[in-house]
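Below is one protein, fold included:
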Amino acid sequence: MFSCDNANTHKEVEIKKVAIAGNEVLSEADFKANLINPNSREDSIAFANKSIEKWALEALLYQEAMTKLEPDEIDIEKQINDYKKQLINYIYETKLIENNLDTVVNIDEIETYYDEHIENFILKDNIIKVNYFKIPIQSKEINKIKKLIQSTVPKDREQLEGICLQHAESFFINDSIWLLMDEIKREIPQLRDQLDYGSYKGRVIEFNDNEAYYYLKIKDVKIKNSASPLAFEKENIKTYIINSRKVKLIESYKMQLLENAKKTGTFKIF
């Protein structure tokens, strides 16, 4: 029994080179595998040259980076492991929060937080409470709305809202909500050039143009750089309290893990 080898079996296959950048080689196989062929030959040649230059740019930058960066700066495996640990911890913390966080915040907590941190609630813009409507000038409901808007009777308020929903182009009749002064100015063109200090509690502004009748009664005003009212900050405070609870929950849980590890001997300092 005997065997004979084909002479070509051990011959090294020569790699066809497309380009060289520093100590890296772009083979024809790699080039073809990553090349998207455009329609025309001219486009194909131009696209191929751009692809090769793009490859060269990345290759040359990488080679220089490897010579200029410190070993710890290019320890990719360590960086990947660190990121993986942070990501897994974040996912687990999110799960702990979802399963254990109390998101109910009562009004007493909100008021206490507001009183204790009043210096943090300073207005950056002027705010206002208003009753307001804009209604087409030909509407027959104008006088009725003007009368109803002065009333505090619940049935009248319901009737007013119903009429405004049917006839007004825009309106706002919620006495408990603060609005930014600039929002009202965007709704009422004639107010845009007026100075904000011209708006005061109790003032009524009425006017009309060729298309609409405007009515605005100012219920209250707060000027920027003064203390922001509690009602305006209520939702923000609720968010602050819940976020604070999240931090405390995670910190407490981590400390429990640490204490348990000390007791069981799985955590030691040498």
User: Anything to note?
Assistant: Residues 1-5, 7-12 have pLDDT under 50 and may be disordered. The domain at 123-222 is CATH 3.10.50 (Chitinase A; domain 3). The CA atoms of residues 120 and 241 lie 14 Å apart.
